[in-house]
Amino acid sequence: MTMTAPASTAPALPERVALRFTSPLLGLPGATAYDLVVVPDGVGLFSLESGGTRLFLVDPVHYVDDYRPRLTAEQRAAIGIDTDADALLLVVVAPDVDGPTANLLAPIVIAGDGRASQVLLDDQEMPVRAPLRPSVSG
């Protein structure tokens, strides 16, 4: 599976992609196998190991202006990519009283072969609960 596309859009994905995380997602210990399923207006993440676990993800380019996190060499190496452009980057969405929010501090990074990682952007000032609104640039 190839995951390359213009910088302003997410790569075209099959309806379902098996992902193997390098370590469990934050708050979900033990599970490292998930299916990434394309759904309208976002991407849903379904756990293979725990069928009841369901997270919603979105491509931040459509909802967050000027979100351009920088991955470290170690974060890229963990999923076998050379540059940030070699991966699909998605953010976890959470419900909130005032509307959905996105965790911009810990995005999901996916390589073309299905390896994935939730990275923590230690040195970057990013919110954990950024309001989601249609992006001006996306």
Automatic annotation (TrEMBL):
Record-linked InterPro entries: Flagellar_assembly_factor_FliW, Flagellar_assmbl_FliW_dom_sf
SUPFAM superfamilies (UniProt xref): BH3618-like
Pfam families: FliW (PF02623)
Alphabetic keyword roster: Bacterial flagellum biogenesis, Cell projection, Cilium, Cytoplasm, Flagellum, Translation regulation
Keyword tRNA processing: no
Any one of the GO BP annotations: bacterial-type flagellum assembly
Family annotation (PANTHER family): FLAGELLAR ASSEMBLY FACTOR FLIW (PTHR39190)
Protein's UniProt name: Flagellar assembly protein FliW
Species whose genome carries this gene: Microcella daejeonensis
